[in-house]
């Protein structure tokens, strides 16, 4: 299933240099992570430890990759889940799962002999929707309350906990989540710029034999509105087209056809806003 695949993907470690573009967000994130890396200095200065970072932006822009890279960079263990995993019909189940998530994270960090852990919650809006709003109901509210309790209670002496959460609807989030001491950093992750798209294309073409005249710059120019995930699909589709044509190299036409294929398969807004 998708979830199983995602969980397997989480086992693969990621460096920041495997994430194309997103220079601004990467820099902001690295500045925030300094709080974890220099935790002794942070506590000496009496600075409140950083508890949570929200990564906000459209799907497929590398939010999960950034969370994983953050874990690697800070030598933390990494545990991932999605807001939808907490949505249950039965009262109390969501809240119980939140408690288990935090205790599992601490257990894993101890097992891996790490001093810190990153808990990644994808689709935080599913459980973090404004309490009392239309799309919330009592069971969700309980789950969100439990998340707030866990975030406030994170004080394990030996293991530092950083919660990273992704959303593409930050406007839906309950204000309580964005209060200091909870998610007090929001890093916006936009769709990649042309330069970003070129970097992402290069990253995903690295292990593919490209024909000498393939012009990735032109591919980047033609893929306005594509996310990193879309660009990964483009490189993969291009290689599949080469295979179908019994070629050992991927040629420019494969890329052109792959772009069309990805546009047909997805609803990509290709009209530049300016
Ligand atoms: P979602 O919100 O849909 O979960 P996401 O923002 O978490 O998406 P990721 O899961 O990090 O996106 O990215 C999906 C895939 O897209 C990655 O595994 C990678 O192959 C590719 N990708 C996305 N962004 C980038 C990037 N900046 N550099 C390289 N690859 C990227």
Automatic annotation (TrEMBL):
One of its GO terms (cellular component) is plasma membrane. One of its GO terms (molecular function) is ATP-dependent peptidase activity. Coiled coil: none annotated. One of its GO terms (biological process) is protein catabolic process. Its cofactor is Zn(2+). Keywords: ATP-binding, Coiled coil, Hydrolase, Membrane, Metal-binding, Metalloprotease, Nucleotide-binding, Protease, Transmembrane, Transmembrane helix, Zinc. Residues 49-193 form the AAA+ ATPase domain. In the C-terminal section; belongs to the peptidase M41 family. This is AAA family ATPase. It comes from Alkalicella caledoniensis. The chain holds residues 50 to 323 of 493 of the full protein.
């Amino acid at each position: 299933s998708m979830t199983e695949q995602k969980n397997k993907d989480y086992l693969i470690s990621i460096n920041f240099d495997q994430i194309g573009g997103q220079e601004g967000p990467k820099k902001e994130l690295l500045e925030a992570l300094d709080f974890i890396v220099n935790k002794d200095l942070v506590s000496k200065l009496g600075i409140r430890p950083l508890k949570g970072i929200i990564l906000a932006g459209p799907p497929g822009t590398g939010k999960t990759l950034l969370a994983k890279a953050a874990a690697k960079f800070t030598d933390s263990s990494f545990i991932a889940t999605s807001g939808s995993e907490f949505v249950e019909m039965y009262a109390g189940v969501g809240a119980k799962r939140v408690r288990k998530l935090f205790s599992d994270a601490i257990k894993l960090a101890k097992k891996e002999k790490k001093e810190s852990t990153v808990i990644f919650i994808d689709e935080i809006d599913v459980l973090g929707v404004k309490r009392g709003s239309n799309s919330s109901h009592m069971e969700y509210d309980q789950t969100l309350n439990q998340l707030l309790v866990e975030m406030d209670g994170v004080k394990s002496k030996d293991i530092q906990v950083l919660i990273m959460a992704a959303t593409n609807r930050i406007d839906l989030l309950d204000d309580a989540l964005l209060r200091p001491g909870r998610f007090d950093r929001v890093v916006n992750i936009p769709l990649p710029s042309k330069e970003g798209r070129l970097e992402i294309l290069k990253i995903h073409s690295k292990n593919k034999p490209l024909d000498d005249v393939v012009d990735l710059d032109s591919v980047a120019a033609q893929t306005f509105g594509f996310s990193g995930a879309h660009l990964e699909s483009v490189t993969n589709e291009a290689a599949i087209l080469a295979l179908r044509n019994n070629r050992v190299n991927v040629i420019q036409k494969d890329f052109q056809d792959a772009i069309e294929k990805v546009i047909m398969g997805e609803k990509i807004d290709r009209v530049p806003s300016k």
